[in-house]
Amino acid sequence: MIHNRKLLIFILGMLSALGPFSIDTYLSGFPVMAKDLGVSIDYVSYTLSSFFIGISLGQMIYGPLLDRFGRKTPLLIGLLIYTGASAACAISNSIEMLIGFRLLQALGGCVGMVSSRAIVRDVFEVHESAKIFSILILILGVSPMLAPTMGSYMIVHLGWHSVFWFQVGLGLFLVGMVFFFLGETKGADSSLSLKPSVITKTFWGIFTNPQFFTYALAGSLVSGGVYAYISGSPFVFMELFGASEQQYGWIFSLLAGGLILSSQLNNIVLRRYFSEKIMTYTLSIQTVLGLLLLAFTVFGWLNFYSAVVLIFLFLSCQGFSFPNASALSLAPFSKEAGSASALMGALQMGIGSLGAALVGILSNGTALPMTGVMAGLASLGLLIFVLGRYFIKKSKVG
């Protein structure tokens, strides 16, 4: 095990950022990729949807493997798959190839997201988890701050294929960091079966745990609104508001600043309030902001500046809701932390892929698909949270 706490958090942050970084670096290249591959931008967005689907499915695979064989071996295998798939993306010459290899890339890269959450549960006490997740978001936040800008410059000067070669290098870097510097935080457990029936039963037991169901599902739904923004923002800012690829990269970075700042403020707020109370307020505010975005769109009030302000505030709420939802979801589990982390991640990415796909399916040349999906998922997340909390309290009283 790593005895250097800062190095451990850095590695976990890099692992958790691998999936988002693989998204953010190529978003500004959608118009160029569409032109080069001879398809519409909406069709290019399916490479994003396939990536979300791969992350969702892959996490369900890695969860049991991380519990059965320990953290390190499955992590290295997944990173190698990610690296190879990134190279395949770089040499793709059709949209169909790119969609397929993005799926494989996600199936490999998602291991970083699952393992980092499981390792936090292994190493840190439950009451520390929300704080550690907030710190990881600081590293995770570097992705949307730097990745779009880096990606836009690479796309402009080296072509969109260069983004995926960069991801090859990132994958190799993480393989080296994990192999040389990350020790095993949980040994293999031969008592855990990998039979499909047993795995299904384990996942079902985790999902039906009232605390997991409430916080993981509510957190995943509001996160789905963020992925709807990620999917719809290239069209909204570059096509509707006329931003260039490089300008879009700066806009994306600015908006991500709200997520980073709020995640660090969360550590301060946690000194006075419990995670449950923080989530109550932030989910409520996030829902109101989503509904305001929808209302501004419907009534024709949404412009560049109002979109930036409202989305900035919406993402800021995510900096509070994500770390607290993660800590509360994983708190009941220790032996099955890998599977619980996988299921939580699968829910988040599954709903995220649905949100991203809905934005593309409902595309009508306006911002309505993006803002409508953001508002709808946030509202549903708040509803699940309120109802879940009610039943949790009722069961404790009973």
UniProtKB/TrEMBL annotation:
SUPFAM superfamilies: MFS general substrate transporter
Claim: Cell membrane is one of the keywords in the record: yes
Taxonomy, superkingdom: Bacteria
Official protein name in the record: Multidrug effflux MFS transporter
Family the entry assigns: Belongs to the major facilitator superfamily. Bcr/CmlA family.
Record domain Major facilitator superfamily (MFS) profile: where: 8-396
Membrane topology: Multi-pass membrane protein
